[in-house]
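The step that takes the researchers longest sounds almost clerical: writing a folded protein down as plain text. The outcome of that step, for a single protein, is printed below.
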Amino acid sequence: MSISGKTGLFKVISQLKNAMLVESLTDKKRFPAFAHEKISSLEEIAVFTSGEEKPLKDILKAMHEKLEGKPGPDPHSDPVKLQAFFQEVVPEYDRERVYLSDIKKIVSWYNMLLENNLLDFTEEEKKEEEKEEVKAEPEKEAKEEKAEPPKKKEAKKPAPKLKKK
């Protein structure tokens, strides 16, 4: 997850009364992230393209495939090289709305997630395989089962009142 105004990525550790306890992936420090801070899950983030927005997970997967699981370029390297690299990964990205700072952030996030072994694309592959299996199987007629009516809940008895001495 990303927190606006704070550099790097964070992992949710637990839920507190009015905040979340998060841990920085860079220095492993823990601190509360409150509701008034703009917190974004990486699943919510997308990049502008010439067509529809492309989810960040798809971009990270494309980077992982292109780099064959190796770290990406240094985010502080030559801007022209960074933009050329990003164009190879996402050729349809919108050059007017995706700034160099966005590209640097995405490349640094990729490197950080790779370093912490948090890039896991097996879930997507399993879903794709399941979809293919479902298409390959012939459709079977579903048997209709009679649904039992829901049971009535018994009313709770009030707690006995305690006498004061």
